[in-house]
Every structure is written in structure tokens, then in C-alpha cells.
Amino acid sequence: MEIETITIEGNSYLTGEVTLSESVMASKIALIAGILSQNPTVVKNPPDCKTLGDTTEILAFIGAQILTDDGVSIHGESISMSAIPPNKTLTTFELVLIWATLLARFGKAGIPETVIASHSYLRPILEAFGVTVELESHYVVAYLPTTKKDCAVTLPSEMSFEDKVLASLVALTLATSGLKTTIKQCAPSEEFDILKAVFTQMGVHIQGDNLEIVVESVPELIGILYVVPPSSREALLYLALVAVSKGDIQITNFPNKSLSRITKRLLDRGVEFSLDKEVLRVWQKDQVFTPSIQTLSESQRLPLIWQSVLSVISGLSDGESQLFIEKHKVSEIVSPLSSCGVEVTVLPSDPFTSEVRIFGPHKFRATKFAPESYESAVSALLCAQAASGTSEISYSNAIKDVHQNIFSSLAKLGMKIYGYQE
């Protein structure tokens, strides 16, 4: 795996205008949904990103015709395989979503046992759809019942937010293969909203909100022309980088709908910004923030990337902050803070969650860090920008896999960042 090391001189002043690139995640969700359509689904304005190519490569491997003449199109009708080959480039999230989509399309789909083994929380969802599962040559092969019927699915409450997002997408995807499906307690996530919009455009009837939606399938899903929205993760990254240092930038086409819950939290903490229609201006002169005090139930509705941002803001806040973060991810998110000299205490909360207490305000010191994930890489990037001195971050494309040409864009805004290759 290729490892790059970038250096960042902290506390640089960021200024200028930002045009967001297209969402990699939304592009992937639309292309995967195209497995179900009987005519081409076209992603009109795909981002220029290596990981999108990794997704189209596996779709082509299972038989889909992928064309790149005008955007990226998938001809799902040509798919001949209903099993996913072993793959080390795609995330587990993508592989499970492709598997569920193949299951909805063919009524049978296989996935390597090593991929699905950690997703036991999907079992009650599959059972609600009448899915039976067999183990064949290290593959988990799932079968939908041949007789379609109405069904009801309630997502388990005892799971992490990220797991609940994937469970919601799997349930919604399988609902396209039935008659009428009621799904309760879906994750309030951008990914779920994107898939709902894609399926609605394909002809599926979907009503209700995340607490309870009703899905009525149609005999055939139609291919669509999908216009990719701006990347909300990129918008949040720009906003947070100014907040933890100093600057004055303007972000056009700001995706406020998908980020409204986190922007409200940042505004309450003391981050200074204004929003006029789809243009957000963020400026910061002094890092005077109030602590974040979360409840456990609140934290279960927050994406991990939001927790990364709130953790760094908490290190700059005047007082003690209390966050709750998934136990298996807490080290990735808070380790960059500890390496910068921020006082962090991690306590057990429940079998799935850790209570994180962050004591501020701190003057971040320069550090050397090797992030393990995207959320960890964002936390490290924010810490380096907030720190005094020069930090080194070694990573395996964790940021570039999600954001197109992000480092060169940050350099144009005035961030003192060196050593990257884009």
C-alpha cells in the first residue's frame, strides 16, 4: 500500500472562494443502484477519483457494461454474476451494498465470508425479508423467497450509527424486490437520503420519514440520469479547517440540508459563519469555543466524521467536553488529539460506546501521526492546522480517496501544506 507523508505548518490563514467537487459517495450509490435498472443509469458529472474507478471495476467484473463517454454509465441488464469476488480495494460498506443489490436483482447473491462476518446485525433484517443463508466454499450465499409478499422491518437500536446506515441501505434495497415494505427506525443519514432519491427517480414509490417509511416496488426499475450533488464531507472539512485556525472563506453550493445538524452544533460552539441561500461564508478570528456536552442517545445519531470535527473543536474549547464515540473507533479519532498534547480521558459507557472527556482549552503542539482511517485522517489534518509548528502526517490515501485534489485546493486557500502528489 502506497504511503505518503505530508507536512503542514499550522495556524496558516485561509482565505478565498471554494467550489466543492462532486460527492464520491453519491456517485457510487447511484452506480450500484444501477444494477437493478433494465436500461442504462448514467452518472452525469462524476468526480475524478481513483476509488470510483475501483467501484466501476468490480461492477464490470460481475458483468455490467461500464461506459465513460459522457459521464459514467452502467448497463445493469448485462450482469451475469450474482457473487462478489474477493476484493481488497473497496470498503466493506460498498461490498455489502453491492451484495444486497445483487440479491434484490437475482434473488440469490454470494459474498466472501470474511467480508460479511462482522455484520451479524444484518441477520434480523434478512430474516424479516425471508432470506435464507448458506455457507458454500467460504462464501455466504443468500436466497430471497420466490413468492413476493408484504413485510415489515424494524432496525435494531443496539448498533453503531455507521452500522445503522448500512443496515438502512440494505433494507431499502431489498424492499425493491418485494411488494410493500414498511421500514422503521432508519438512520438519519445523507447516504440513506441519496439512495431514497435514486430509487424514487427509478420509479420506486417511497413515502414517510426516517422513523417509518413505506416502500412499494415496481415490476421494473428504469435507468436514470443522475446529477451528482456537491460533497458534504468536503464542505465540512473546509468549514472545520477555518474554525480551528483563522481565515475567511466562501463556499458555494453549500449542502446545508445534509449538514444542518452539524452546522447548528458548530454555531452553538462558537464557530462564526453565515449562510445565504447556498453560499456559506465562514470566518474565524479567535478560537473561543464552548464545550460540547453530548448525551448517549444524541451521539448514536451522529456520523463518525462529525465526531472527528467536534473532538478537535472540543480540544480548543474553554472547559470540559463530553462526547460518546463508538468503542472500536474511539482510538482512531482521539489519538491525534493526544499526540498534540490535548488531555483526553476515555471511559467505558456501554458494550458499543466509550465516553470521551476532552479538557480544554489547549494549545496544540506539532506532531507526527499515521492515521488508520478517513475519520482519523480528518482529525489529524485538523489537529495539524490548529497546532503551532510543523506536523507530519503519513497516510495511505485516506483523504484523497474521498476528496478530489483536496490538498492543492487547500494550498490555494493559503494552507501551508507540502509533499502531496495529486
UniProtKB/TrEMBL annotation:
* Coarse class of the protein's main subcellular location: cytoplasm
Give me the reactions it catalyses: phosphoenolpyruvate + UDP-N-acetyl-alpha-D-glucosamine = UDP-N-acetyl-3-O-(1-carboxyvinyl)-alpha-D-glucosamine + phosphate
Q: EC number(s) of the enzyme? A: 2.5.1.7
Keywords tagged on the record? Cell cycle, Cell division, Cell shape, Cell wall biogenesis/degradation, Cytoplasm, Peptidoglycan synthesis, Transferase
User: Hey, which pathway is this one from?
Assistant: Cell wall biogenesis; peptidoglycan biosynthesis
Give the Pfam families listed for this entry. Answer: EPSP_synthase (PF00275)
One GO cellular component term of this record is: cytoplasm
Catalytic class of the enzyme = transferase
Compartments where found? Cytoplasm
Which InterPro entries does this one have? Enolpyruvate_Tfrase_dom, Enolpyruvate_Tfrase_sf, MurA_subfamily, RNA3'P_cycl/enolpyr_Trfase_a/b
Quick one: a GO biological-process term for this protein?
peptidoglycan biosynthetic process
> For the Enolpyruvate transferase domain, which residue ranges apply?
9-260
Signal peptide extent: none
One annotated GO molecular function is: UDP-N-acetylglucosamine 1-carboxyvinyltransferase activity
Family to which the UniProt record says this protein belongs: Belongs to the EPSP synthase family. MurA subfamily.
Know the name of this protein? UDP-N-acetylglucosamine 1-carboxyvinyltransferase
